[in-house]
MBL fold metallo-hydrolase
Amino acid sequence: MTQPALTISRILHAGYVFACGGTRIAFDPIFENPFSRNCHAFPAVRFDVDGIRRQRFDAVFISHFHDDHCSFDSLDLLDRATPLYIYCLFDELFDMVRQLGFTSVTPLRLDVPVDVGAFQVVPREAMDADVDSMFQVKAAGLNVLNVVDSWIDDTTLAPLVAQGPWDMVLWPFQTMRELEVLAPSRFAAAPPSLPEEWIPQLRALAPRYVVPSSCQFQQEPWSWYNRAFFPISYARFAQEVTAALPATTVVRLDPSVSVALDAVSLQPAPPLDWVLPIGEGNVDYAYQGNAAPPPTSDIARHFAPLTAGQHARVLDFCRIGLPDKYGTVEPASEYFDEPRTWQLSVYDHAGVATHFRYRLEPGGPATPDDGVTPPGWTTEIPAARLWAALEEGESLTSMYLRINDAVFDADTDSALAQADVTDDPLIRCLFSDTFGAYQAAQLRRVLARSGSPGAQLPATDLPNPLPTHLPNK
């Protein structure tokens, strides 16, 4: 007798299509390469846009609002009658999705099942429940846990173990050094091994199969991040998990690849014909610690020149907008409890820097500094990336910020050791009280292409966790 089967297909990153008994649902679909500005599919793929437009999903589930999971450029390819189920605590995102034209948009609630045809999908609590969720997927008597890119702790692990046994777990296998690359001279190189809590957690879940999930991208081909961002290789993940869980099979699913899971086996299935692999598929991450980061002046040369208007926008922000904004953001750590001099260096396409000096008073605005006092904090950024952050919702991971890559006096250096990279004044002014800037910029472009009236975009006065891709939040 034929066993009932569940087909699982990888799109890219955390994107999957699940099919069973004539029902097809998708999770965190991304149909872009690159996505999130500088995330290039690894291994490389291209997408058949017309083929995607012909797809009909019975539902789409989105785990959280980060732009590598909820991208309006990708959602724009879907039929607007597709039911969307989104985990997000901010109403503003749902308003924007409805402005995109979707007619069935439902907020997800933790532990509240959603039944779609042959499937039951249950959002489960992640460690940072203010930001993201994971999914339990049941179909054909099978039980799959899609961790997406969430952290799990003891509080969230116990309920998941109780929901077992698990046939498959989609496990986020990269830790990603998103903050470390912002200040490479102040962080030690991370070891290329799995975090110590992962193996005990996987042992507790005890799945039949585990898929290294939620990554499959690198930055631009020239980027030094490609040698410093990703400590864990596919090979290392498979080696450590197989050694620790001999009854569990590690299964790599590259973009377009499909498998049919039943109660006794896992078999190949026809690939997604609208996800088109390019070149070699058996690629892996090569980690080289901090990898001799190039100066920001060299990085800035990779970006096109700004127009005169764009350049003026950047200068106006640095001279007027930023000083005013600084006085309105939430206080940082104790390091800024006393006056500090901050130097912001903005590099143009030729690698030439314009330096701005500010005096930062606790609880007050930033004021121009006379340049005599040595800086107690430094920030460098390409002008093109600062403009994109101001106008296009550029996220922190693609801005090529360089923080405190300077020589300070001994007292300042000692104090900086206790400060957090995200205390950076520019980061705080750009991100500390905005929500959904990337999606808002996408929505403007989509509506402009369609000739629709301008979007009524949300006010940007909500707290927004720093934009990140994977679970080093």
